[in-house]
Design brief:
Elements: H1 2-29, E1 31-35, E2 49-54, E3 86-90, E4 98-105, E5 110-114, E6 117-120, E7 123-124, E8 126-138, E9 141-151, E10 157-163, E11 174-175, E12 180-184, E13 203-204, E14 208-218, H2 232-235, E15 243-244
Antiparallel strand pairs: 1-2, 2-14, 3-4, 3-14, 4-12, 5-6, 5-11, 6-7, 8-9, 9-10, 12-13, 14-15
């Protein structure tokens, strides 16, 4: 009886270890879930969105795996990201914190803001104002924004938010180094991104984790958290479930 119990325990431990290995492999090589904790990508991504990120889209590096084991400074099976992709990456400042931003600048390109307009390689990016004026979050605050549709040179279009009461400052000209990328948040007046060279700056291709594929779950974690079950109808954003990104 005792031996049988020991065998059952051992079998259960083996099953658990096997399940953990499979889960780690899937998470490292195929898809990984991420939670959106900030408003830097509004209106595209909202606080409380849960997304799946494609890990094999750009190939693999040490940052594809849990805890970023330092086994190599190379990227394997590398595929070049496309301008306009929503990309999760490890911030260069600590190589541990996950950020998600939109890829704007490719290696060797110049990026600049002039009078609130985005310029890539001295060419003004098409930006058209929509009829939407919505409130977006910025930390604990909210501000009214104008929503614009921006279209990149490769035809990729998306929506960006600009504070309706302020004007984005002109910037210096950023020159993206070789094997690096330039990322900007869609919430243009409330995003720590590659414009902040000391905290984010240019992102090495090694730091890319993967491309955001779709939202699989979303709930308003600030005004109607799930713990307040009586507000569950206000909390769950069903229309965002399985939204492609």
């Amino acid at each position: 009886m005792k031996q049988k119990l020991i065998h059952i325990i051992i079998d259960n431990i083996k099953t658990l270890i096997f399940a953990i290995i499979i889960a780690v492999l899937i998470r490292s090589l195929f898809f990984q879930p991420f939670y959106i904790p900030s408003s830097s990508m509004e209106p595209t991504l909202l606080i409380g969105d849960r997304i799946f990120v494609n890990k094999y889209k750009y190939g693999y590096s040490k940052h594809s795996f849990p805890f970023s084991p330092n086994f190599s400074d190379k990227r394997f099976f590398y595929k070049t990201p496309q301008r306009g992709d929503l990309v999760v990456f490890k911030t260069p400042a600590d190589n541990r914190t996950d950020y998600i931003k939109r890829l704007i600048g490719l290696p060797g390109e110049t990026i600049q803001f002039i009078n609130g307009n985005l310029f890539i390689n001295n060419q003004k990016i098409l930006k058209s104002k929509t009829d939407y004026n919505v409130d977006v979050r910025c930390g604990p605050f909210k501000f009214n924004t104008n929503i614009f549709k921006e279209t990149l040179p490769n035809g990729k279009s998306y929506y960006v938010a600009y504070n309706s009461e302020t004007k984005i400052e002109n910037s210096d000209k950023y020159v993206v180094p070789d094997k690096h990328y330039f990322f900007i948040g869609d919430n243009r007046d409330c995003s720590k991104d590659s414009r902040f060279l000391t905290s984010v700056g240019y992102v090495n291709q090694i730091n890319l984790v993967g491309r955001a594929s779709f939202i699989f779950f979303s709930n308003d974690t600030i005004t109607s958290p799930l713990l307040k079950f009586w507000n569950i109808n206000d909390s769950i954003r069903i229309k965002r479930f399985f939204k492609k990104l």
